[in-house]
Design goal:
The protein has 2 domains: about 5-235, Phosphoenolpyruvate-binding domains (TIM Barrel, Alpha-Beta Barrel), CATH 3.20.20; about 240-295. About 50% of the residues lie in helices and about 15% in strands. The protein contains 12 helices and 11 strands. It has helices at about 15-20, 40-60, 75-80, 100-115, 130-135, 135-140, 155-160, 175-185, 205-215, 230-235, 240-260, 275-295, and strands at about 5-10, 30, 60-65, 65, 90, 125-130, 150, 190-195, 220-225, 265, 270. The two termini are about 15 Å apart.
């Protein structure tokens, strides 16, 4: 579960939308029981999602439903409806502290046991979307080996802070929280996933938004419309030019090492240890994606 570029939200109470989503190729299907489902439809969403899990899993992408928060009063029923052999993980919003993760993990462990599943096999993607969660980000990210990624929720964060989400390209009102999440995720050896881009008809804006997210350190992004999947996948994948340049960087550096030097140059740029490490990371990522596509 190291490749989580695009994670497609699908309203869990919409059977037709779950069916349609199977024609698209995100890295992760996220059948949603939380914000995209009105309160009156929560029970229906559980039934609809449960009936689609086998089919979603058969398509190929990972299946990671999003359940309602620990505070909602619905989480136990949500988990009961989806924890089983056809999901890879659970996404859960409104996480406040590490204690929330412990409680959720205990609930999942109990269900894994009832389903005769290996303990710990269901992974977690918690959402950081309040000031309290940002303050406790490191404790949350390291609270359980189930956690493979952490997601940033901009809409709930700005609501919690009582500030306006400007929606401009700089997103300066989100800068501290987003940087904190990315740095903390990296320190915890998990992935940082970015908040959805809600202007789903604005592909140019999406591309700029994803580029900014990559510069911050995010490794993937949630999509709210199938049309966003391909641009997100492209943005978080090394291009052929990226891979070719990385190969040349590694070759140049290795030649320098054989000559007893710790650095060299390529096209007017200094190539030293950190630059070579970045290039090798690009090649490793490209190789992992290639194997994933082949599988």
């Amino acid at each position: 579960m190291t490749i989580l570029r695009s994670l497609l939200f699908i309203p869990g109470n919409k059977s037709n939308m779950l069916d349609k989503a199977m024609g698209f190729d995100p890295d992760v299907y996220v059948p949603d029981m939380e914000d995209s489902v009105p309160e009156s439809e929560k029970k229906n969403a559980r039934k609809v999602i449960a009936s689609h899990l086998r089919k979603l899993k058969a398509v190929g992408p990972l299946v990671i439903p999003r359940v309602n928060s620990l505070q909602s009063g619905w989480i136990e029923e949500d988990l009961l409806s989806v924890v089983g052999p056809f999901i890879d993980g659970i996404s859960i919003g409104k996480i406040r502290t590490a204690q929330d993760i412990h409680e959720i993990s205990d609930l999942i462990t109990e269900l894994e046991s009832k389903q005769q599943m290996a303990a710990g096999g269901v992974r977690l993607i918690p959402w950081i979307e309040t000031a309290q969660a940002v303050v406790h980000c490191h404790e949350i990210c390291t609270a359980s080996p189930r956690i493979v990624a952490v997601a940033f929720g901009a809409e709930d964060f700005t609501h919690d802070m009582g500030i306006e989400r400007l929606g401009d390209e700089s997103e300066s009102e989100l800068a501290f929280a987003r940087n904190t999440l990315c740095i903390t995720a990296r320190a915890a050896a998990i992935l940082a996933l970015d908040t959805p881009y809600f202007r789903f008809k604005d592909e140019a804006g999406l591309k700029r938004n994803v580029a900014a997210a990559k510069r911050c350190g995010f490794k993937g992004k949630f999509a709210i419309h199938p049309a966003q999947v391909a641009p997100i996948n492209r943005a978080f994948s090394p291009t052929k030019a990226d891979v070719e340049y990385a190969r040349r960087v590694v070759a140049a550096f290795e030649e320098a090492e054989r000559s007893g030097r710790g650095s060299t140059s390529l096209e007017g740029n200094v190539i030293d240890v950190p630059v070579a490490k970045r290039a090798r990371a690009v090649l490793e990522l490209a190789g992992t994606m290639s194997k994933s596509n082949a599988g």
